[in-house]
Amino acid sequence: MSAGASADPLADGSAGIDLRHHGDAEVRGADAALTDLAVNVRAGTPPDWLKAHIAASLDGLAAYPDGRAAREAVAGRHGLPVGRVLLTAGAAEAFVLLARALPARRPVVVHPQFTEPEAALRDAGHTVGRVVLEERDGFRLTPAAVPEDADLVVIGNPTNPTSVLHPAAVVAGLARPGRTLVVDEAFMDAVPGESESLAARTDVPGLVVLRSLTKTWGLAGLRIGYVLADPDTVTALERVQPLWPVSSPALAAAEACCTPSALAEAARAAHRTAADRAHLADRLAELAELAESAEVRVCGPAAGPFLLIRVAGAAAIRTRLRELGFAVRRGDTFPGLGPEWLRLAVRDRATTDRFVIAMTKAIADTAA
After folding, report:
1. Could you give the 3-state DSSP secondary structure of residue 73?
2. Side by side, which strands form the sheet with 107-111?
3. What are the pLDDT digits (tens) for 276-331?
4. What pTM was estimated for this model as a whole?
5. Among 256, 17, 267, residue whose Cα is nearest residue 122
6. CB 305 within 8 A of CB 190
């Protein structure tokens, strides 16, 4: 095992953290008025054409959902046979299906990452091992840290919350005979060119890729995602899935988001997000130079529509930011991180500039 990561489930001291805390908790109720940098859904979405398409599907609500067209659209989008596609009520449902359907004896989750995979496995009665990647290694994957006897391995790419994009060859190298390799690619369509994606691969044994349409298209409230896997795995997951799990409006959205024009729009959005992320990183670097009372460290290079930062007094700064009108995601509910971490969603440059002004004031106020 590499010294750059730990496979001890308790080694990071985070066994009792709240795995079910997510960014939407920061902007509920009266807090919905805050400028939202806590949730990783692209701002200004869904686009009008998509809302109109979903609205048109409401005329068919009297009929039970028929997912065949949407399933074919997803398969065509990735160049795969239809039998390798399973539509789900968001990627989160897929984690529950995997936890219930697969007879894993030693599941391992690579952290820091989205916490729902571990929560779903634990709810299904599994004892979950953690491979905790280290800040000193840039939170990059250390394949040797994954136990050889792990028969289910879960990793995000690009990873939430670190924004690290692992090389596809390195991730695929985790595959072993008798092992299921689950790669959460919920944010891959926010990466220009979807570089390092394994979605279209059929040569990696035991590979399961999860995708979400929530983030890029602003469909968190509709719940639509999908699984890409070998037909036997798809069948096993489908057996534990409720009847008609994906609504007709969600199926309509899935079909629409796989058209060539939609894919081109998503590609343009990915490039804009990359430019806006670079602007946010640059402004935070300027802030780090100006802030005498707190060191602001940006985790990078980043590839997702969010940045992970480390700053002393993050909890107090987060509270002060709320008073100044901004919501950011706390980092201490991610195994492997702690109270000094915050995750920031990428927004347009004007919003970033306003945020940096507020962040500068929050640091000064909490240090006073």
Report:
1. helix
2. 5-6, 129-133, 107-111, 152-156, 180-184, 207-212, 225-228, 85-88
3. 999 999 999 988 776 555 689 999 999 999 999 999 999 999 999 999 999 999 99
4. 0.94
5. 17
6. yes
